[in-house]
Amino acid sequence: MSDKRKALADQIRALVSEYFAQAQPKAAGAPRLPLHVPSYGPDEVNEAIASLLTTQITMGEKVRRFETLWAEYLGVRHAVMVNSGSSANLVAAAVLVNPAFPDRLRPGDEVIVPAVAWSTTYYPLVNVGLVPVLVDVDLDTFTLDPAAVERAIGPRTRAMMPVHLLGNPCDMRALGDLARRHRLHVIEDTCEAHGARFEGCPVGTFGVMGTFSFYFSHHISTIEGGVVVTNDDLVADLSRMLRAHGWTRDVRKKPDVPNPGIDERFLFVNLGYNFRATEVQGAFGIHQVPKLEGFIRQRRENVEDLNAALRKYSEWLMECPGRDGGGSRSVWFGYPITVRPGAPFSRDDLTRFFESRGIETRPIMAGNFQEQPAIKLFEHRIAGPLPNSALIMRQSFFIGNHHALGESERRYVKECVDEFMSRWA
Description:
single chain, 4-stranded antiparallel beta sheet, Aspartate Aminotransferase, domain 2, Aspartate Aminotransferase, domain 1, 13% strand
């Protein structure tokens, strides 16, 4: 790099840092407590700009650095970055049905999933010919109810996909026991549970694969982005091929296949997609990972404080305590509130009041997916009644919980709740 270009690059870095040092003016009408706020700053932006200035922008060294950091954080052998959490789920599902995967799943095989999740838990399974089996969740964590899972297992059941919803770890001991007894593969959808643990182990590391999303609103962000993690070398290489056209370029162990006369730099041995991440995403990620534990501490502090304050309204509001203790911890993607069916007000009454006071609200992911119109478009099975999922669909919502929510914001939420509840005091 010439002296002139280096001087200009230094000037750009300084200007970006100065820009972020200035107070961000709040837009007119912006919520006082938004669902999420950016988790990045000048380090991420300058790292991304550096990639753009060098024109090294496709998947490369910074993506590999982020993969290494994420694998080290979780204590797993492999992390394979893709362009989104949705793509991570699709890659994981595609691995299960791939001819190279031992004990592969076949079209029509069933995968147990929670009835409360986001659409991209279900759609990737459907995309590869598998059949989602919706089962109920518990009300303490909004995650898979192991007893309901056991009742749902049938002759076509080959896998389960626990979702660590809202950053709450599933009961992986009970689910793992069921998986071993019934020879089920386990994929963990950990897209909104970065850093959550079950009995001392990071979620996402219990099954054959775990998936994470680094979307803008999640605990840490690469703008868009996702990761498949695994301790299985074959699964990791399959994931690397599937994310990039079935190409062997990024695999660690080259497949032993006949390739007479083919340039080994351009050898295609499997199916695949174009789910590669960019260096801009990797640039964000390498600066976000070191911030995660601090973000988690703030989220947990927020929930502990709000839970303590709202318990006085337990006659009308149900607490979602999460899963803590014994080495387990919830990392709280959002702060959930459930209105008891017998309360003198409705869930919508409370959400409208919050919105009028500048506190953003949203449903618990997609709610009970059995009730979504899209369920009619694909083969599925409903395993028994779903009373808890139906209750969450009608009575629950969440408000923002993130690193930028502190004591003053929590005090405002508590004041608003007290104001609303005073109508029935």
